[in-house]
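Section 5.1 Outputs to date
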Amino acid sequence: METTFFAPAGRAGEHQLSEQQQLVSQAAFITAVLHSVTDMMLVLNEHRQIVAANRLLLDAFGVADQSALAGKRPGEAVNCIHSSEGPDGCGTSETCSACGAVLTILTSQETGEQAEGECRIVITNNGGTALDLAVKATPLDIAGTPYTIFAIQDIGSDKRRQVLEHTFFHDILNTVGGISGIAGLLADSTSLTPETEAEYKGLMVDLSENLAEEINQQRRLLAAERGEYVADLKDSELGEILEEVCKLYGNHIRTPDRTVILEDTPKFIIKTDRPMLRRIVGNMVLNALEAVPAGGTVRVSLDVGAEEVCIKVTNRGEIPKDVQLRMFKRSFSTKGSSGRGIGTYSMKLFGERYLGGRVGFRCTNGETEFFIKLPHNVS
């Protein structure tokens, strides 16, 4: 059997697969279940291959007939961007080890019991659409042969609303933490020069205005249904935005004794949603500050290319490989407390869905760098 990075390799031969399809199609109760439920549904064989699918799933992914899916695995059927990476397709790549769909199927097969999970799959359709799905795998025996009923529910709209709500409190607390940090410095004004005190007071005014702006923007986000929020694109000088973020998080109450350095930044204006970009970069900076020990430094920089700009936030230390595979997952957090993982997920959601950019990270030479790339012109 071929060695894989994760789930077992191996598939049913063409003759065996045909027999399995016929056997399932002749099971009247299975056919009735497939076409009476309100969820997308597949029947999988022991190799996780599709032997039957209901009309809801076929319609959702623009498939004319279920015979076109026969023998494929779920990720291959929906055109997951990672489905061809492994040595034997869907489920066998290193990335698949963090896929909730594969994990749910394997758990059900191994335990012989129903298993549930969630997954976020990016498909090749429409330039890389991300699907948020709830999945359920239920073991089934037909004439002594094991199968799995795999139910799929699109929970994207619900998750977007949850993300918006969680992000609101997450980011508001971030801003409040910055205000609290500056307030603490002002409270000890006996050690400040008049110039520094005046600077901090001005910053307090700016941060208070930013807080009000965050609240107003959240009202707009919550009013948008099904991800149809239209970004408020205005001419914005990127250096000013980065300077605001660095001042806010350079004195944050949650990350004392850390330093944020804004490297020399070229003057450059693009059309963007200023509050949203500020919260994305702010999350990057705060995550970097939390990743370095006291005395550590975080660098913020801007590169201007021919067609896009790249904002980068860099800190010492590399993210462990198993954490890298789960980065940007909605429910994933390295901090072990509810809601703490929402920052990275919202970066990608907002930066890509609403700003038309690309959000990612790289770990090289003992450093971690998060970045957002934005086109010069957005339509």
